[in-house]
């Protein structure tokens, strides 16, 4: 891990270091021996998340009253970063479960809903999904086609969601559906749908470039009947809730990006010290050492942006712009760092004997998930 030589109030606190070390140990022991096999087979290791739950990693942001770890975003970022430095696929799944589905229920659910669902999610017994994106409404979420119609004390949901993390294997899903006119932000509502509910079925699993051990699948709703008790918050508040959830979700992607970049950088640094050309290690050549210097500097900058966003959200302050900045910079940074890591490895960076080709493949999703880089620029510019 790169040291953060900055003012004491921004250095990793003791709890952050404990979480980082614990998560890194978990990833080294439970993930590292298998991550390439999982990647090649596109296998989703569901059992890993029960083990993660036993360490508190499945409810990082949830108070202990509901079975969570009761920690803040600094510790949460440390956990995602540490796991993602080994395998970003597992880091992505942990992020989606924590900051999207679990956090949505905690932030907008009532006491009965929190007590009913969160303990199982925090323990890792249940894996959560979060459904906003649809086939024709990636960035334009308000134009969703999934509809929820009131039927007495129930709701009937019809439609589909795609590119959903854990869309097939989830035990519980938070679904955002339209209950009125298309394009109206105040006519969208959030619901919880449990696995096994009639009419809630899984579609195809996506065959992805990277993050292959993190399941991405379609969710389909065919006259799916759920009680009004499964509604999160007020009718019509679903879109507004989702935007608040995505503020925190973007910090997750920044953390994911940091993990990927650190993993790629560490691999490139080690290789540059071991690999000799013209009678000396290639790190002694300016062309390589300058690449590493730039990589390290960009990682530090992304770390500070992410830490600032984490501090703001911990304080309950608005984090829309800062989260978007952290996500934009960190995600684009991790692509650049992963690319340079491959370049430093030369031909060996292009083969699966070394980990940098996987970091390279995994990195690109960070510029797309939780809003593309272009969407982040829109968010930032609108808030200037």
Cα end-to-end separation: 34 Å
* Largest sheet geometry: 4 strands, mixed
| Tally of contiguous helical segments | 11
CATH homologous group name of the largest domain: Butyryl-CoA Dehydrogenase, subunit A, domain 3
Averaging pLDDT over every residue, what do you get? 96
Shape: elongated
Strand/helix succession: HHHHHHEEEEEEEEHEEHHHH
Low-confidence stretches: 1-8
Number of domains: 3
Q: What strand order characterises the main sheet? A: 1-4-5-8
User: What's the number of extended β-strand segments?
Assistant: 10
Helix content: 40-55%
CATH topology assignment of the largest domain: Butyryl-CoA Dehydrogenase, subunit A, domain 3
Strand content: 15-25%
CATH architecture assignment name of the largest domain: Up-down Bundle
Q: Could you tell me the radius of gyration in angstroms?
A: 21 Å
The SS-based structural class is: alpha+beta
The CATH class of the largest domain turns out to be: Mainly Alpha
Could you please describe the fold and organization of this structure?
The chain has eleven helices and ten strands. With 384 residues, the chain is of the alpha+beta class. It has three domains: 8-127, Acyl-CoA dehydrogenase/oxidase, N-terminal domain (Butyryl-Coa Dehydrogenase, subunit A, domain 1, Orthogonal Bundle), CATH 1.10.540; 129-238, Beta Barrel (Butyryl-CoA Dehydrogenase, subunit A, domain 2); 239-382, Butyryl-CoA Dehydrogenase, subunit A, domain 3 (Up-down Bundle), CATH 1.20.140.10. Strands 1-4-5-8 form a four-stranded mixed β-sheet. A hairpin with a 2-residue loop joins β9 and β10. The radius of gyration is 21 Å and the shape is elongated. It starts with 13 loop residues before the first helix and ends with a helix.
